[in-house]
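re the bet — no i am not wrong, look at it urself. input seq straight from the record:
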Amino acid sequence: MAAARKKVSIPTLEERVECLMAELEDALEALAAERRPEGMPQGVIRRMMNARGFGDCLCRSYLAAMKENR
């Protein structure tokens, strides 16, 4: 019976962190796209968001951007 069970693959910490980083990256890009004024490159907005969030730390950039909306 144990052999019939599917082997469950538990992601490693590194894999989970990589997935979370990808999610944060996507969320930051979406926020930058929402905030982008007409005619301004999205990359400029993204760099401004990163600067407010202590550089390239995605989690801090995301939290700073979300707090800014409150």
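see?? The chain has a mean pLDDT of 83. told u. also The CA atoms of residues 31 and 59 lie 13 Å apart. so pay up
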